[in-house]
């Protein structure tokens, strides 16, 4: 059985699981990315908060990402060579962890 969710339902699912892995803007960007993924592939994504927290990570700066992954990128867009990049704003972003 499948259930459609909107942004409010998506955010509430994370709060119910007491997960604060993403900012509100991060959750919104991830939700929009997953909706676009479903639309472009025709594949439904299961709302599994724990799996999403394991699969994706939010970063507030490129420095934070470089420190975590031992990289020396000078531009956020370069991360796309390694993984999925979901921009939130000029400084923060979400990646699919690898």
In spatial order, strands of the major sheet run 1-3-2
**Distance between the amino and carboxyl termini:** 30 Å
Number of strand elements: 3
Order of helices and strands: HHHEHEE
- Give a quick account of the main beta sheet: strands, pairing sense, barrel closure: 3 strands, antiparallel
Mean pLDDT: 94
The level of helicity is 40-55%
Structural domain count: 1
Question: Which geometry do the CA atoms define?
Answer: globular
Note the total helix count. Answer: 4
What is the percentage of strand-forming residues?
5-15%
Report the structural category: alpha+beta
The whole-angstrom Rg is: 14 Å
Topology of this protein?
Layout: H1 7-16, H2 24-41, H3 49-55, E1 56-59, H4 62-69, E2 85-87, E3 93-96
Antiparallel strand pairs: 1-3, 2-3
How would you portray this structure in words?
With 98 residues, the protein is an alpha+beta fold. The protein has one domain. It has four helices and three strands. It has helices at 7-16, 24-41, 49-55, 62-69; strands at residues 56-59, 85-87, 93-96.
Supply the key terms.
98 residues; 3 strands; three-stranded antiparallel sheet; 11% strand; alpha+beta
Brief account:
The chain has helices at residues 7-16, 24-41, 49-55, 62-69; strands at residues 56-59, 85-87, 93-96. The protein is an alpha+beta fold and 98 residues long.
């Amino acid at each position: 059985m499948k259930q459609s969710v909107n942004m409010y339902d998506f955010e509430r699912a994370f709060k119910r699981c007491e997960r604060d892995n993403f900012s509100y803007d991060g959750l919104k960007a991830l939700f929009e990315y997953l909706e676009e993924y479903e639309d472009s592939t025709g594949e439904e994504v299961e709302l599994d908060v724990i799996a999403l927290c394991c699969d994706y990570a939010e970063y507030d700066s490129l420095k934070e990402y470089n420190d975590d992954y031992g990289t020396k990128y000078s531009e956020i867009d370069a991360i796309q060579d390694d993984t999925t990049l979901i921009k939130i704003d000029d400084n923060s972003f979400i990646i699919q962890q690898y």
